[in-house]
Amino acid sequence: LAICLAFFPPSETFFPYLLGFIQKHRDPNMDFPDVGRWPIHVQISHYAGICNKRLERIGVGGRLSPKKPTLEDIDQSRLQIFRPSMFGGTLLETLAIQKDKFPSRRLPWILTTLTEQILALNGLGTEGIFRIPADFDEVMSVKCRFDQWEMGVCSDAHVPAALLKQWLRELYIPLIPDDNFYNDAIRVGDDPNLAVSLVQRLPELHRFVLTYLIRFLQLFARSDIVTVTKMDASNLSMVFAPNFLRCPSPDPIVIMENTRKEMAFVKTLIHSLETSSAEGVL
Length: 282
Prior knowledge:
Layout: H1 15-24, H2 44-58, H3 71-79, H4 91-98, H5 109-120, H6 136-147, H7 158-170, H8 179-188, H9 192-201, H10 204-220, H11 223-229, H12 233-244, H13 252-272
């Protein structure tokens, strides 16, 4: 059931019945006697907790849509019942996952590690960085390594660049976190003062992560770097706007109309946001 709920939502009619069943079994008293001394994989309440979280996210009122899974997706969904993934959670959940290993870090470990890898692999000298796709199999392999707290070996900068975009795209709550912020962002995108003011109103962790990322992108927007990468602020905003903002409307016409406005907002931040507060911070 936990695996199914990672990809397929119940109908609206069945939803409350399934929710009631799952929540009933979240009670540790429903576990077998003395289960506390047993491995987690035999604790019914653990499975029920995972099911409840996945149902909240893909069921009625959730942000996730149904997805046709690959065999790799199914296998990863099974593993993540016992080992939370770096991908697909919220920013707060990501910090919680890393708390034991990195209690003093203010930013997600995977975020800073990926950006450092991009720079270490000469991302600033790689033509088409963030635009040219990486090898799919290599990306998936390195992603699995990250979920095991290992820094996968990448053949070039395109691999961590692809993973950075995927991590941002799969955040359950995007960097621009709700409909009100989103509507404000597409409204003020061309106005530097209003765009910067919006960033200052974001929840603290979202503001901090966004500032760090914009500072990172500002490195690539320098004219001497653009000469090599062919990725100026306009191209960078075209790539990253869909990963920073998520249009709440399902209407493809609205999505298409808002695309330019989303890009304008990100481009304005690259040009105008003061990011010195993120310098040297992990």
